[in-house]
Design brief:
The protein has one domain: Arc Repressor Mutant, subunit A (Orthogonal Bundle), CATH 1.10.10.10. Helix content is 48%, strand content 6%. Helix 1 packs antiparallel against helix 2 and helix 2 crosses helix 4.
């Protein structure tokens, strides 16, 4: 497999991580932008201006600043400002889940918050593991 294909796999693997990330909509939309505009082939940072990002993502500058700060805090993006006349350089990373995520009503639908079938089976009362109970074994013993 060639180098270009490997980088594409990296982007697709990252997309899967972002898809499952426990982040609010604004943070996730901004993170998608950074992941999409990161140069995966050459491993070069995204360098769009705030105005461009706000226009492409469809958010206000205030919302952008809040979401960007949250992504930095949760370590989902790495940023560096080289000079005042250049945009901020941004690279995507794999961060941590937002601790406030589970407080949102819609977070219940996240796959990680759903009870797994195996866990549900294991948590059933004893009657589900031994439906005949001790009565059948004592009846068999008396015969």
């Amino acid at each position: 497999m060639g180098r270009k294909e490997d980088k594409r796999e990296g982007l697709l693997a990252y997309a899967h991580i972002v898809h499952r990330a426990k982040l609010n909509l604004k943070c996730k939309a901004l993170l998608w932008h950074y992941a999409f505009t990161y140069n995966w082939n050459e491993r070069k940072a995204s360098y769009y201006t705030q105005d461009q990002i706000c226009a492409y993502v469809g958010i206000s500058p205030t919302t952008y600043q809040r979401a960007k700060s949250k992504l930095i805090e949760l370590k989902w993006i790495i940023t560096e400002k080289k000079s005042m006349d250049l945009p901020v350089f941004v690279a995507p990373a794999v961060g941590i889940d937002d601790p406030d995520y589970s407080k949102m009503s819609w977070s219940k639908g996240h796959e990680d918050n759903k009870l797994k079938l195996e866990d549900a089976l294991n948590s059933l009362p004893e009657q589900f593991r031994d439906p005949l109970g001790e009565n059948i074994s004592s009846d068999l013993d008396s015969n």
